[in-house]
Every structure is written in structure tokens, then in C-alpha cells.
Write a structure and sequence with these properties.
Number of domains: 1
Distance between the termini: 24 Å
Number of helices: 13
Shape: globular
Radius of gyration: 20 Å
Length: 350
């Protein structure tokens, strides 16, 4: 514990001048405090953003083939991810950038994918002639953004972060050379789409992403990546602030503006810790949601129109097959995500 007497002007000054304290415990305390600040900032800017989105008629289309109980969501404002990205970028630039220019990478990826998601959301408003960008067009842009991120992760200092290792629990750390780049690209794109596919129920994607960032923050602290710790907890605070407006019944959806950005940033943060092999465990629900779609499509194609799941992504299957309410699905997926996060942290500590 840090004695309260240490919080003198000299301890507060680093916050004001964007220089984080060198003591790891103090740094962790500051990171947690920034999570609280991110929560407050998101609450403050959230209401005007929701009001603006309503005024701009930024309502979400709901697919007719989905659960009929979701039709009441038609017209609910989307693009709520703006409030998350705005908060995280603002607080990172002010408090987590000086002396940590590596934070430009996750912030840059957050902004780039948020813009891509916003363009996609803009094309899916109620009254639009289509449900967003074509899959091929969106995937091409995701691939381009992920490639830039992977190359920066791999290139040596001063051009990049010089990362090219894999850490395998119980075995150790090994260099994988250029293979690192395609793995990073695939993971960033996959997690971006995984979070996006999970964004189908009120508070589902937001809660799961907050849980995953808590786990990544703890892993980053164990690895001594204090910039990633601060970024992760700032993200958690912003996500909890967003959930204030996204709790069932949702006043706003994060949309692709939030989902694509959150998944890509989560993957980049995991790679920066060096413990990226644990990301499929920490984000196991996102993996399950993605696999359910892939399995359904392939089985449908090769079985002559048969289905394994009532509907995908996976959360819709439990709504329709098991009769779970939207809130039950969300909470049970959260519980699974929490346990997966604990397992991921445990493996990182070995």
C-alpha cells in the first residue's frame, strides 16, 4: 500500500505534466485513477453524444431475420463507440504519451479503425439502401491497418518496437522472426471482427471487452509494460462509462465505430505485452462468436443448406434455442469471460 502522506505536490505534479511516476506501485495507482477519470469523462460526454446521434437520426437498422424481440431496437442510435475512443485518445495524449511514444501505435490503430467503423455505420442507418460497407471492402481496409500495425510492432528501434517473440506457458520465450508479422495481422483482424460479431446484445461486447482489458492490464503490469497498463485501465474506465448508456434497454449501440476499434486495439495491446498467445484465452468468447459464424457458413454450404446453430453469432443461438433472455445471455457470457480472463492471467504468471 502507498501511504497517503506520499501524495504531495511532487507526487501530483507528474499527472499535471503528463510524466508518470517511476515507482511501479505509484504507476499502477495512477493507472487505476485514470480508469476512474475515464469513466467520469465518458459519462460527461456521453449524454451530448447520444443526443447528437438522435438528432442526426443515426439509428441502427435491425436485420429482419434476427430474433423478433430485437425489432424494438430499430432506430436506436449507433456509433456510440465515439465516446469510448474520444475519452481514451484524450487521456492517453495528456497522461500516457510523454516518454512513451510507443503508445502512438495503439492510439493510432484505435483512431484508424474507429474511422473505418464510422464509415461502415454511416451506411447502415435506418433508411439506408444497404447494411454497411461490403465485406470485401471493409476487410481490405482492416487488412491494411493491421499490416501497418504488425510492421511497426516488428521493426527494430527507432522505426518500430522490435517485437518478434512468442511466449509459450511452461516452455519460455522464443523468436519467430518474420512469421511474427502475418500472425500479428491475422490476430488483429480476427479480434476486430470478433468483438464486432459480439456486438449484438445490449452491454455484451462492452462488458466482455472491459473484462479482457482488465486481464491485459494485469498481464502488462507483470511484464513491466506500464504504458500498456495505463492504456488498458483507461480503456476499462471508458467502457464502463459507455455501459451506463448501453445497459439494457440500450440508449445507444457502440456500432462498428466502437467494436472494430476495440478489437484491433485489444490485439495490439496484447502483442505489446509479449503475451499475445494468451489472447484467444482472454478473449475466448470473441473466438467462440467468430468460430460459430465460420462453422455455420461452412456447414450450410457443404451440407446442402443444413444448420448447426439456430442462428449465429453464438449469442443468438442461446436466445433462440435455449430461450435465454437477452440479459441472461449477456451475464452468462460475462461470467465465462471473467473466468477466461483469470485463466489467462494465471498462465501469464507461470
Amino acid at each position: 500500500m502507498i501511504d497517503s502522506s506520499t501524495y504531495t505536490l511532487s507526487a501530483i505534479a507528474p499527472l499535471i505534466f503528463s510524466v508518470m511516476p517511476e515507482d511501479p506501485n505509484q504507476n499502477l495507482a495512477v493507472s487505476m485513477a485514470l480508469a476512474g477519470l475515464a469513466f467520469i469523462v465518458t459519462l460527461i460526454i456521453g449524454r451530448p453524444i447520444v443526443t447528437l446521434l438522435r438528432a442526426k437520426k443515426a439509428g441502427k437498422q435491425i436485420r429482419a431475420e434476427g430474433p423478433q424481440s430485437h425489432m424494438v431496437k430499430m432506430g436506436t442510435p449507433t456509433m456510440g463507440g465515439i465516446m469510448i475512443s474520444t475519452t481514451v485518445v484524450l487521456l492517453t495524449v495528456v497522461f500516457n504519451l510523454a516518454g512513451r511514444l510507443s503508445m502512438l501505435l495503439p492510439v493510432g490503430i484505435l483512431v484508424a479503425t474507429a474511422i473505418l467503423g464510422a464509415i461502415d455505420d454511416r451506411q447502415s442507418f435506418v433508411g439506408a439502401t444497404k447494411h454497411g460497407m461490403s465485406a470485401r471492402h471493409k476487410f481490405s481496409w482492416q487488412l491494411a491497418i493491421a499490416t501497418v500495425a504488425a510492421v511497426i510492432l516488428y521493426l527494430p528501434d527507432p522505426y518500430g518496437l522490435g517485437l518478434h517473440h512468442i511466449y509459450i506457458p511452461f516452455m519460455g520465450r522464443y523468436s519467430i522472426g518474420l512469421l511474427y508479422i502475418p500472425i500479428a495481422i491475422l490476430t488483429i483482424v480476427a479480434m476486430s471482427n470478433g468483438v464486432n460479431l459480439s456486438d449484438g446484445l445490449d452491454a455484451l461486447a462492452g462488458g466482455l471487452t472491459a473484462i479482457a482489458f482488465v486481464a491485459i492490464g494485469v498481464i502488462a503490469y507483470q511484464q513491466g509494460q506500464l504504458g500498456v497498463v495505463t492504456l488498458s485501465f483507461t480503456m476499462v474506465g471508458a467502457l464502463l462509462g459507455f455501459l451506463w448508456f448501453n445497459a439494457h434497454p440500450a440508449q445507444v449501440f457502440m456500432g462498428d465505430t466502437g467494436a472494430l476499434a476495440l478489437g484491433a486495439t485489444m490485439a495490439v495491446a496484447a502483442f505489446m505485452t509479449g503475451q499475445w498467445l494468451l489472447l484467444p484465452i482472454v478473449g475466448v468468447v470473441f473466438v467462440a462468436e467468430t468460430l460459430s459464424v465460420i462453422i455455420q457458413v461452412l456447414y450450410f454450404r457443404f451440407s446442402g443448406g443444413k444448420r448447426i446453430f439456430r442462428m449465429t453469432p453464438l449469442h443468438h443461438h442461446f436466445e433462440m434455442q435455449e430461450g435465454w433472455s437477452e440479459t441472461q445471455v449477456t451475464l452468462r457470457f460475462w461470467i465465462f469471460g471473467m473466468m477466461a480472463g483469470l485463466v489467462g492471467v494465471a498462465l501469464a504468471l507461470l
